Amino acid sequence: MLLGPSLALSAVLFALGVVGVLIRRNVVVVFMCVELMLNAVNLTLVALAQLHGTSGQIMVFFVMTVAAAEAVVGLAIILAIFRHVQTVDLKQFNLLKG
Amino acid sequence: MTSFLASVGYDRWILHVLLILPLLGMPLILLSPVRAARWIALVVALLEFGLGIGLWWAFDASNPGLQFVTDLPWMEGYGVGYRVGIDGISLLMVLLSVVMMPLVVWGSWRGIDHKQRGFYTLLLAMKVGMLGVFVSMDMFLFYVFWELLLIPMYFLIGIWGSANRLYAATKFIIYTFVGSLLMLVAILWMVFQVGKATGTYSFAYTHLLDNAAVLAPWGPWLFVAFALAFAVKVPLFPFHTWLPDAHTEAPTAGSVDLAVILLKMGTYGFLRFAIPFVPAFALSKTTGLVMSGLAVIGIVYAALVAMVQPDLKRLVAYSSVSHLGFVMLGIWGSTVESVQGAILVMVSHGLSTGALFFMIGMLYERRHTRMISDFGGLARVAPLMTLAFVITAFSSIGLPGLNGFVGEFLVLIGSFGRYPILVGVATTVVVFSAAYMLWATQRVFFNRFTNPRNEGIGDLNFREIAVLTPLIAAMFWIGLYPGPLLRRTEGAAKRYIELISPHLPEATLPGPITYGAPR
Amino acid sequence: MTHFVWLAILLPLLGAVANGIIAVRRPDSRRLVSFIGVGVLLGAFAVSLGVLREVAAGHGEATKLLLWQWIPVSDRLTIDLALQVDQLSAVMLMVITGVGSLIHLFSVGYMQEDPGYARYFAYLNLFVAFMLVLVLGASLPVSFIGWEGVGLCSYLLIGFWFEVDANSDAGKKAFLANRIGDFGVLIAMFMLWWHVGTLDYAALAEKAPAVLPYGGTIATTIALFLFLGCTGKSAQIPLFTWLPDAMAGPTPVSALIHAATMVTAGVFLVVRTGVIFALAPVAMEVVAITGALTAFFAATIALRQNDIKKVLAYSTVSQLGYMFLAVGTGAFAAGIFHLVTHAFFKALLFLGAGSVIHSMHHAQHHAGSHADPQDMRNMGGLRKAMPWTFILMAIATLAIAGLPPLSGFFSKDEILAAAFARGETNGLYRVAWGLGLAAALMTAYYMSRLMAMTFLGTFRGGSDVEPHLHEAPAVMTAPLAVLGILSVIGGALNLPSFVGGSHGLEHWLEPVTEPATRLMDALVMPHGSVEYALIAGAIAIAITGLVVGVRSTLRSTIPTPAEAPAETGIRRLLYGKYFIDELYQKLFVGPLVWFSRRVLWQGFDQFLVDRMAVGGTARVAQGLGWLGSRLQNGQVAFYVTLFAVGVVLILRTLVG
Amino acid sequence: MRLIDLSTPEGATLALLPELLLTAWALVVLLVIGWRHKTASDMRFVGVLSLGGYVLAGLATAWLAMEQARPDGLAIMVALDGFRFASNALLVGIGAIITVMSLRWLERQGILAPEYYVLLMLATVGMMLLAGAADMMTLFLGLEVMSISVYVLAGYDRTRRASAEAALKYFLIGAFASGFLLYGIALIYGATGQFNFTLIGAQLASTEPTLMAKLGMGLLLIGFAFKVAAVPFHAWAPDVYEGAPTPITSFMASGVKAAAFLALVRLLAEVFPAFVELWRPILAALAIATILIGNLVALAQTSLKRMLAYSAIAHAGYLLLPLWAHSDDGTAAVLIYLIGYSITTVAAFGVLASIERAGARTVQLTDLEGLYAVRPFASIALSVCMLSLLGFPGTFGFIGKWFLISSALHQGEVLLPIVAMIGSGISIGYYIPVVLSMTLKPTRTRSAHQTIRFPRPAKLAVALCVAAIIILGVWPKPTLDFATQEAVQLRRGATPIFAR
Fold first, then answer.
1. Class of domain A4-85
2. Quick check: is B425 in a domain?
3. Which residues in chain A touch residue D141, judged by CB atoms under 8 angstroms apart?
């Protein structure tokens, strides 16, 4: 049921996430784009679960949990660096290079 | 002598003892007080010499194969073993190593005045590597020793060398390491291919050699891989530029070891590995022409460059390049005569160049310069050293009656049939070698005494005489009576020729003269 | 005694070692040194005499004496250290030890005050040992030991007074020129072994004619390479320039090495390997014409030299040319004959010159003069102070000029006759003969000029020097006297038939030369009126030369070196030795050194290999690394873009 | 042989015993931290305490290995074979040794938060799960557990901006890469309907490769390429390695990389054997690019830590060779090389950590000049490490290089080994200067050197590692035997057996 469109939608979402990561400069937005990617995959899994049974849906739960954990850690890290540079512009984070 | 050696089971333990003794000496030196370091090194060296010299008698000249063979498991199941043994070629190299050992230690007696423990430890480490390379009959073991040798040499040059030592040390290690990288791939590939064909994956030299026919399809790249490693070490023109730097900057002991042993590892490698494994390609017309051509270019080129060197050590370094070219030419001459000659050149180059480096070291200890222009007229203040130097110089340029001649003569006459024109070109070096050697000798020992700072230079002392005497005696011995040496290598040389003769291309250079076997 | 011929080598060798040790340990034990130095030579001479007797008593066959296997390398190449005693080596043995003994004796006086006395005798003894190895060797490689060994001793002795740069230079030059020749000998040996399969003289003489086609390329090539060796050792064109420089050594050395023995080794070698030359007529022509040209040109140079030793040196080169002319015509015996007589009179001349220099040096030393004791322009009228030397040198002059019945007359005449005879069939030899004749005229001229400048007229070296001039001590004049006698009677060795002789030396050498002469066209010597005409002509030329030389010298005023005007025109050319040395320097030595330094070392080694190839590789790697490092700009966006590029590439490979 | 039925709770517990024990211990330690988290001695106490977890996990692994535990039927979520036990042993070892290295270092740097050790343990658990996974879910979970812990650890030195920036970069790009990996998993799931490795493998082997499967595999590879820092997915690594606290850098370069490689070996062996022709060119290209770029850029570095980071990238390139080989040889080679490489890297960073000082800038190559005269132990240890990384005979690095090159050669491939050798040739250009600076250059900063204090535990650990490098280099037989005989039992293209 609507397997093709769901997969296509999730692919588009995933691509949007990727593009977002590529072009956005705000750390928080970039992070949100990454979350978008994960959720796109979740959509894929759910869609495919129609075809292959429940294991895909189980996977989705794991992914959501992981994403939540990632969000916690990620935001903490962003906060940590914000304390140092007082900005969320990715461009400013180039102390390490070479 | 022979029966006495047999009664103590000499042939069973000697090679292992030779390898282990310096290994035992190393921690001993490190743990003992600084003053004892050189004494321990000397004792170890003398022990090595005393024990190792027995090989001369214990070696069975009538047996062309490997002797003193031991095959102990090391990495069973991976084809790697502690496999050692020697034939006539290795014998001479091992003997040369053990003979030089006490001389090198004693020759460094005064020149090394700081970090003595480290110095003598590394000296012993180098000995292990040198002996190991020549006795290994397992490709893995060989490679380990081959590479291991770089480390002590690197530090010897880098710590105890002269002004430009860091550059020289780096150049040395990078050159030689990079050169031998492909050799590892080649060895592994050989083991794999032979293993696939025979079902036995083994690094054993004899196993690989017996089944070398399997390797023929990969001849070109296997040869190139080996040749690169060995050519750098020889050093064959145009891979020689590391040598003058390394020689020049190294302390006396390093220069001597480098000249006497290390360079021989390259030619030894060609003779032992690179050619026998892939004879068809290695001895094919084109390869032969390229290799012997490079050898001959090196012979003449290095002699010419040596002529214009302002630095004595650098001059001798280039002369080494020239001499080693003879060895290469002899190897590709592919006759019993030329190969025997090549082996003999290896030995006699060791003696004469070793002695030259010792003497330059002695000059350096006195005057802290190696520049030819800083000397002049030394014959007046140091007649004995002049005598020794002149004898050595003439030995180096191949005066008949001294050691240099015999080997070079055999190389040239033996290779003439295959490469008449190249040999002709190579022979011109009798003029150039005389030119650089005599010119240098003249500017250092003869001519007007111009530099007053040389006044107090002093002649050879007892220790220095004792270091040089054995070398000079050996020069006369080999020059006048090389028979015992030649007899010991004859078996190996003949076996080698038998091995490769099916792969030798028929005729020779295009040209007016074509030679067959001598009538 | 033949079986103890090695003693003749061993004795001088031991002498060399003993004197060497003395030179290092107790350089002032002159008496011991003299005793050893001369003693071993006399011993060797005694051995030689014994050998000569036995060879004379024998039936002509050579005796081969195996000492030990030298280079036993394989079944097909085993070089024995073997000696060969036959007629040729016996003659050479006599010359070397005989003349050698006299010169050693002379040296006792001549070198008495030199601080390097012991060293000198060590070298000289060593030289004799090597020279004997050269002539006694039974094969080319063994002879080659001696061949190079004498070169070594020559090097050491020329540079004996090493503290003068020019002397060391001269020694080095001599050795290098010799080495160029040795290159030829080596190549010849290689070719001989590969073609004939042996390097033994005896075996070569036997096998070579069977293996090498007569007149073939191979035989010619081998012969020419051998001859290259001879030109080096015997100072022939083009390698003759070292010999005049070699006069830098002590004068007895010049007498022994650079006149009597070593430089004749080339002639000896041609005779020894006569078979090879006989197989190569073209090579023979080259030998003859080179010899004749050398004889001629060296004589022209000798005309204008003022250094007494230089004159003699060029004279030696010229006389050696005669010898090569002789062997080049196939008259091997004549060559050896001239070698022997030349050894006598040229040794005498050199030693006489030595006496003169010795005397001049002492006198100048006493008078505090710093003039050149060797320059004839400082001499003149010495006959009063040195009558013995004058008389003996006069004998030698007449001998070298070729006045009968002195030895030089017979030997030179033999050579010219042989060249004339060959000229019947081959015009080239006629030219050679003409050159030889012209050289003979000049020889007489420059020798009489030398005598006149030195001994006649009045002393030009300053009145303060003159009173100190005196005759040499007996130890020096005695050898001169012996050589004088030999120079007179030396011709008796090989008296030609027209004076009732029987060509004694020629017959004596026949067993040695026969294999070679058999291969060549027989040499039909001129007979009857032609022969007498030639002899008369030669005598006339000699007399003309002598008379003109003396008269013109005495008639002209000779300026002292300081006030001498610069030479011009052809005289300048001759005085400057045709500027051959300068030419070689400009043409070969200079460019080679420049090429080695600038092109090979700095250009190729340091720039191309080190800087470009090795350093370049390193720099390229470093540069790439630097570039990569710059790309690592710290921007997450860029990293992610890189990531995305990778994704695209991978997915494309999988999908495409 | 002990057969374990993984479908029962007891069986699963047994099979996961090492991971469970370590997790439990981590939680216990976390509890302890509730009381003790104030002082430096608390830090030390917690550190030493956490070692117990590694010991337990190690013992459990050893027990499983000794019992020769094997799945009764199909391995459902986690593998039970020699390879997993070997992986576990390696990873637990790395975790433990990093703990030891950190013991005094953290206090010296003024980092007084003992949760560090807990995170380290949890990361180790994640690594073990990742390497031992037999199922995509386990794989993903292991990966994330490891990653999230390491994100935090990378930024642990909060007072340093570099550390925070490193964490941020690692986190952003890591999460980004996770997305790809996850998408790959989803697509594979879509193509086969399975998460289990063996079942997917069987499925893929029995049908023509579909686009979805191919894309899925590609995305999975990309995810792993990121983790092992293969070019062009490597860009994060130098920055993160430089910014992270040195023990964590060491942990990432050894442990994280090892776990990723081990998982990748299993993945390629069990899931994608049928696609071998598809992924080989990709791996080859990655290997060549990684080797060359890693080594070349390392040449241009002046900071020791950054140089080691690039060197780590280059070594990832080498490690792709045995993966490419796709054979038992290759599997053994990966293990052997990882053992040698991990030990060496840990020791090298250990020395580096000892040279660093709190608040100081990163250690430059020139700072090492003349170190030997003042701190001979540190310089000899670092020299040995450099030689081992270079693959010099006499060190275990050489043995690894030997197996690695052999494995590719045995598949008839010569180009890759030659590229590896070229890389090795370039690498001497930056390894040797380290040795040179320390031993041959004159001391320029003697007083600075004298302030270097090698914490005793770290010194001990480094000494152990160096000894291991040399001893294993000379007598590697037991290790080789273990790797070649025990650890290669991956199911390669085998048809699954349905037990139930």
1. mainly alpha
2. yes
3. 62, 66
